[in-house]
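We now fix the convention by which a protein and its fold are recorded. Think of the row as the fold of the chain written in a discrete alphabet. Here is one such record, which you should read through line by line.
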Amino acid sequence: MTNDALLTDPQVPRFDSRMSEAEGLMWRMEKDPFLASTFGNVTVLDRPINYSLFRERMQRATIAVPRLRQRVRPTPAALGAPRWVDDPEFNIDYHVRRMSLPTPGTQRQLLDLATLIINDPFERTRPLWQIVVVDGLAGGGGALIIKLHHTVADGEGGVMLSLQFIDLERNAPLPP
């Protein structure tokens, strides 16, 4: 399945503007930093990432997956489920960032950076995701630190989202 086929595939989940009860619970619990519903992933690659191309692909992904451009609007007095609304101030550069590890660019340095990024609470007035493109790894590789709130996608949804920006084969053609 090509990435563009995901846009029209009926198997790809469509998102309701109202949070489910479980999502609403995770959102409300997030006020306590010890009950965070954020998950993270560190993907290490054998070559550096073309940041401008990655940023462009993520910009396209936010169109294919509208939830990435939405923020949570709580209901008054916390009555009822919060809603997802388009963020009129959405800026891809807030969500896709680039960082370089200091020399020597060890795995320990990468994991320490990932720990800081993933444990930093989300700004609750913005869409609840962030990806940091990391270069400067020893051996010339690159990495992605992906931070996602569980209300945006569960594990399966996170995998489907990753198909928007990770190719399954080397030198795959760019989507039209």
